Amino acid sequence: MKDYYHTELEAYRGSVEGYSLFALTMLRNSFDAFSALDRERACEIALGKEYLSIKADQLEELGLQFIALHQPVASDLRTISCCMNLITSAERIGRYGKDICHCTYKLPETPHIEGMMGLGRMAKLTISMLEDVLTAFQRQDLSIIRGFSERDDQVDRMRYLIYEDCISVMENDPKYIPVCATYLLVDRYLERCADHACKTAEKVHYMVTGERVDIR
Question: 37, 55, 36, 187: which is closest to 121 by C-alpha?
Fold first, then answer.
């Protein structure tokens, strides 16, 4: 019975990993479509939102069933708690991906401002944080998320720099207002995704060690 329980728990972990990877891929593909001004691709990616919501409810229900039926303790309970956090964060990250798809529709039929005000660099760093925290969860290896606070600080600096640059461009030439206003939305979405990466890193640390840390 105990072996069956742990087999089921590992299967649950695997399902949560797969769901989180889907959300991460949705975010990455959404930004790629945004960068390429590929509105058709963005429309296809945005359809993943329905799967996100349905699957999140199913996985959360499974987690609650584990707690109710097996009354896990110690590391098993921390694992389930971490899984529940990943589900919530993954759904929100996927939704930010959908929102970036919607930003693609809002962009005017003109090329991007050169360099997209640094959004590409910000997206790369944010996505790398999400990739690393998911790998840390899979491997239970905390060395992968070492230095997350500094990486989050870097994302925050990028966010404010992009904000200031967009404001400056809009003040100097109002024709760029629609583009820069959209960049500011994407800027905010990416910053929030980095925050979710930090919050998940805290949960992974607690899952592995039983100790709570503050990563921000």
Answer: 187
